[in-house]
Task: structure prediction
Amino acid sequence: MTKTSQRLSPFAQHPHEPSTENSVKSDSRSYRWLATLILFLGFTAAAHGQQYYDVDCSGANPDDYPTISSALANVTGPGAYILVTGTCTENVTVNNALNLSIGAWWGQTANLTGSISVYASEGVLLYGLNVTNPSGNGFTITSSRAVILESCNSNSNQLLGLNAEALSEVSVVGPSSFDHNGTGGMNINTGAILEINDWQGPTDISNNQGPGVWLSAGSLFNTLGTTTILNNSGPPNLSNPEGTFGIIVLGAGKAQIGTCYGPNLIQGNEAGGIFLQENSELSLWNCGQPYQSYVLSNGPVGISAGLGSQVTLYEDAQISGHTGSGIELYGKSQLNINGNNLVSENGTRGNPRSAGIVVDGNSEAYLRGGQITSNQGPGILALVNSSADFSGTTFTGNSRGIISCDSSAYMASDLAIGLGNSSAGIDCRTPHNLGNRHGFSFALAIPDSTALKSKVAQYRKMASGKPH
Result:
């Protein structure tokens, strides 16, 4: 019973034809024989690099492998395609693989009850797989590079939808979802990089019992748009007494949220939208497209940054609808707002810390442009040796005016210099007239997706219709 086949080059010999080597005439010169042999070996190697392994987990086709794992055990080298139909019940482990593709036929899906783990591999593409694991994570990627999850869903797992760790590099290509998981949607740790590159469709990370995205230890989370992170919740703990956030960034992690392919929405997460600590960084940035990132109605705070962390809003982000503040900074953290961003309708009447932006504990807010409007409390509340430096910013409709400071905080602005003018909505000291540095703002570079799109196009070509 043959369970593998190879798509041969049109120039390679058919396996049932006489060999090219034997067809060379006896009176040919030796260099022609040698050239023919080289071509034969080269094309045979190319054909060998495109092995196909059919898996039918329903058992309807006895000529196909019954499981993904049994097909994997017979892969002989790089460049293999494992094409799956039916519902598989197994834990799949990919170890030390090179240029391996596992997935449904193009345009279809295959179900897996269990997990997929990729270790120490490079160039692994997973396509059209719907994974649910009743006893662990859906996907685990460890010490691997150039791993692509295309049109995959990892929902209702006992633990995480996806765990990427140990310097792994992972690309998620939508449409995809990581929803209703027991401890969180995505965990990105120990220097791993995860990019959501959704030129084909959106990615949803919602309704998890735990954060939508958690990253730490120098890891990077990057989305280029059409990502939704909604309604993630979880039991309170010591670090998050009110539950969990949509995104949690710790340990010098970096989160970059761009709008190249469409808008992003972070909404309805129990304890807040985005939480940063421990020298971490967050950028909400615009790719030059007419889209926005929205952080809306996430409990008490939209963005909370502390302990040396940095937040940048570069064009077209909206932070609205929170019961405390739109953005809060504390513990020597910084906020940089450039361009047309909106912080509006945050706060609750009677809450003394309600504001559009709270700058606390030796922190700094640097605003060039933007709108701070219709918040309960001041547009900016500055406390405990903190400062606000703003120019070209519009403040309207905030119930306690433009800015309010305690006795240790300062402002530098394009407003009139003085010790405060409460009648104009300014209750803050200006220490000197040397503020308002013009500064510079540099947009993040849009990643080059050429290689990723080429890999996806190759899979589409190879998995469209039975090749054998």
